[in-house]
C-alpha cells in the first residue's frame, strides 16, 4: 500500500534538498555486490530494510535523473536497471559515517554508479560506464559539496579467465589514476573491497591483484568470509550491512 505524503511536506522536501545539497559526497561503483543483491531471491526483492539501512534525512541519493533526493533502498534501482536490486553497502555506510561523526559530517550524498555483471574492461577510460560515472560525479557537485571518496566493489567478472585475472592489478591502477585526473582530485581516496566470491576459479588471483595496489589513499576492505547467498556469489543482506560498516570505519580517518 502506498503512503500518501501531504502536498506541503513534498514541497518542503523538494525546496530544501537543492538548497542544502550534499556536503560529503561518495561515489558507489563496481558490479552487483555494490549495487546490492541482499534480499533478492527468484527475481524479487523481499523489501526488508535492516535498521542500519533505514532512510535518514541527512543521507541523500543522486538519482538517474541527476537530482538529489532522500536516500532509501534499493539505492541502485534506477541505475542497475537490467537487474533486480536489493540491499547493498551504501546506506549502512552512510548511516555509520553519520553515527561516528554526528553533526560534524553535515549532509551525506551517495552517487550510485554500480552495474551488475561488469568486468573491469567495461570501466576503463572512454567506456560508457566510465563516462557515466565521471559525469554523475561532476553533476553531483552542482549544488556544492566535496567528493570525499570512491567506494569500489568489482572484480567477480574478472575471475573467469587467468588472462583477465592477471591483468586486473594494472587495469585497476590505471582506473584509479584516470578517475583522479578526470575528477581533478589527485589524492581522492579510493576504497576497494576485496572479493568474497567470483564467477570463475581465479578469485585468489584477483584478490592478490587487489592487495597489490600500492598507491596513496587507496585502502583495501576485505569482504572475504562474509556469508554468501545460496548462489555462492552475492552477499546476503546482513553481509552487505557488515560491509557498509567496515567501509565507514575504513574511511573515517579521512574526515
List the helices and strands and how they pair.
Blueprint (H helix, E strand, L loop, with lengths): L6 H14 L3 E7 L1 H4 L4 E2 L2 E2 L13 E4 L5 E3 L19 H12 L6 E5 L15 H12 L6 E8 L8 H21 L7 E5 L8 H9 L6 E5 L14 H15 L4
Parallel strand pairs: 1-6, 1-7, 4-6, 7-8, 8-9
Antiparallel strand pairs: 2-3, 4-5
What's the gist of this structure?
By secondary structure, this protein is α/β, with parallel strands linked by helices.
What does this structure look like?
This protein is an alpha/beta fold. 34% of the residues lie in helices and 16% in strands. The chain has 7 helices and 9 strands. Strands 5-4-6-1-7-8-9 form a 7-stranded mixed beta sheet, sandwiched between helices. A two-stranded antiparallel sheet has the order 2-3. The longest helix is centred in the C-terminal third of the chain and has 21 residues, at 162-182. The N and C termini lie far apart (40 Å).
Quaternary structure: single chain
CA-CA gap between termini: 40 Å
Count of runs of 4 or more consecutive helical residues: 7
Mean model confidence by pLDDT: 91
Question: In which range does the helix fraction lie?
Answer: 25-40%
Low-pLDDT runs of 5+ residues are 1-21
- Find the structural class using helix and strand composition: alpha/beta
Q: Rg from C-alpha positions?
A: 17 Å
Order of helices and strands: HEHEEEEHEHEHEHEH
Q: What about the largest sheet? A: 7 strands, mixed
Secondary structure: number of strands: 9
For the biggest β-sheet, the strand order reads: 5-4-6-1-7-8-9
Categorize the overall geometry.
globular
User: What percentage of the residues does DSSP assign to strands (E)?
Assistant: 15-25%
Amino acid at each position: 500500500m502506498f503512503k500518501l505524503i501531504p502536498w506541503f511536506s513534498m514541497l518542503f522536501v523538494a525546496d530544501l534538498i537543492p538548497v542544502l545539497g550534499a556536503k560529503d559526497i561518495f561515489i558507489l561503483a563496481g558490479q552487483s555486490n555494490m549495487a546490492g543483491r541482499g534480499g533478492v531471491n527468484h527475481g524479487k526483492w523481499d523489501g526488508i530494510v535492516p535498521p542500519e539501512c533505514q532512510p535518514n534525512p541527512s543521507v541523500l541519493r543522486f538519482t538517474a535523473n541527476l537530482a538529489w533526493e532522500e536516500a532509501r533502498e534499493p539505492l541502485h534501482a534506477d541505475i542497475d536497471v537490467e537487474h533486480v536490486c536489493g540491499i547493498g553497502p551504501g546506506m549502512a555506510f552512510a548511516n555509520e559515517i553519520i553515527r561516528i561523526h554526528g553533526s560534524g559530517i553535515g549532509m551525506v550524498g551517495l552517487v550510485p554508479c554500480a552495474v551488475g555483471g561488469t568486468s573491469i574492461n567495461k570501466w576503463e577510460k572512454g567506456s560508457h560506464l566510465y563516462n557515466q560515472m565521471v559525469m554523475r560525479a561532476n553533476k553531483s557537485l552542482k549544488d556544492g559539496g566535496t567528493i570525499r571518496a570512491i567506494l569500489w566493489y568489482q572484480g567477480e567478472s574478472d575471475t573467469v579467465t587467468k588472462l583477465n585475472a592477471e591483468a586486473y592489478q594494472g587495469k585497476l591502477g590505471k582506473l584509479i589514476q584516470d578517475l583522479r585526473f578526470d575528477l581533478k582530485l589527485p589524492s581522492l581516496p579510493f576504497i576497494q573491497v576485496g572479493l568474497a566470491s567470483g564467477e570463475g576459479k581465479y578469485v585468489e588471483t584477483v584478490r592478490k591483484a587487489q592487495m597489490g595496489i600500492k598507491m596513496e589513499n587507496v585502502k583495501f576492505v576485505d569482504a572475504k568470509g562474509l556469508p554468501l547467498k545460496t548462489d555462492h556469489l552475492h552477499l546476503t543482506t546482513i553481509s552487505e550491512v557488515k560491509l557498509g560498516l567496515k567501509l565507514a570505519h575504513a574511511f573515517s580517518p579521512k574526515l
